[in-house]
Amino acid sequence: MKKFGLFTVMIVVFQWLSAQNLKPYILAFETTESISVTNSKIKANLEKNSLKVVGEYQPANDNNRFIIVFTSKALINSVKNAGGLTGFAATLRIGIIRENGKTIVSYTNPEYWGNAYFREYYPNVVSTYSSIERSLKETMKSSGNFIGKEFGSEDGLTTKELRKYHYMFGMPYFDDTEELEEFDSHQEAIDKIDANLKKGVPNVKLVYKIEIPDNNLVLYGLALSGENGEAKFLPIIDKGDPKHTAFLPYELLIIDNEVHMLHGRFRIALSFPDLTMGTFSKIMSTPGDIEDLLEQLVE
């Protein structure tokens, strides 16, 4: 009986630990209303809950997909205090998808992405993310019939795994970024990218730009089009139910006088942690394609 009792306790503990694993997205609600109507409701309710919309766009020029990008004062302040590559954490995203007569709303799981980007610093910003989670839930409850189910990975990842995440041996970690260019100054880097965006470069458009005050950090969210852009890789990797559309847009970060992007083999894998090697092999060129597109902004 004692052995059986211990075994039972072990099973319960294992199940509890498994339940603590985090998944990259949260299913918010489903509705029969259009993407346009749903989008308007969500944006209004984000503002009511102190979450600021900084950008929105239609990824892959797909009429059945839409993305809202948002941030908060507390999140910006947390990034400011941590500095460096945590600049990539300055926004979170909401995906709106029209499929089979339904509009499906999901958002990036704050705790998942917070642990992945802040890593060991995350305990210092946990209150920020808890606040964002509460505000998001209130936003979604005001916009539809809230579900709140995590998805995007069958088993999910522990906080320990997220803070040291890489897809597999030999694959890049969070800080194995691609440095696109180094300028003489922070302002020169901003001026170059802003000038290229204003002038226009092939297949790259600005979705949002966020400057972190007093920290020489600027984050850009960028829509990628053309034969090597979102329309090429999105249909290959985003086949789950619900869709993982909220992993876009791709980002570029200025840190002091350097311009960085997260390596595609990290950023895409983090967004699709259950991606098989077979599927990954179908987008082998995508990390390089994304880098080529973003490099146009620093030339």
Kindly describe this structure:
This protein starts with a helix and ends with a helix. It has 299 residues and is α+β, with helices and mostly antiparallel strands. Helix 2 crosses helix 5. It has helices at residues 2-19, 35-48, 73-82, 110-118, 126-143, 159-163, 186-199, 230-237, 264-271, 277-282, 286-295, and strands at 25-31, 52-57, 65-71, 92-99, 102-108, 149-151, 178-182, 204-212, 217-224, 250-255, 258-261.
Quick summary of this structure?
The chain has 299 residues and is α+β, with helices and mostly antiparallel strands.
CATH topology category name of the largest domain: TATA-Binding Protein
Strand fraction: 15-25%
Task: Count helical runs.
Answer: 11
Classified in CATH, the superfamily of the largest domain is TT1751-like domain
What structural category characterises the helix and strand content?
alpha+beta
Overall mean confidence score, pLDDT: 94
Estimate the helix proportion, in percent.
40-55%
CATH architecture of the largest domain: 2-Layer Sandwich
Taking the sheet with the most strands, its summary is: 6 strands, antiparallel
- Domains counted in the coordinates: how many? 2
Please mark out the parts with pLDDT under 50 across 5 or more consecutive residues, or reply none: 9-19
Strand order of the largest sheet: 2-3-4-5-1-6
In total, the number of strands is: 11
Give the termini separation.
72 Å
- State the oligomer: single chain
Q: What is the helix/strand order?
A: HEHEEHEEHHEHEHEEHEEHHH
Q: What gross morphology would you assign?
A: globular
CATH class of the largest domain: Alpha Beta
Q: Radius of gyration in whole Å, from Cα?
A: 19 Å
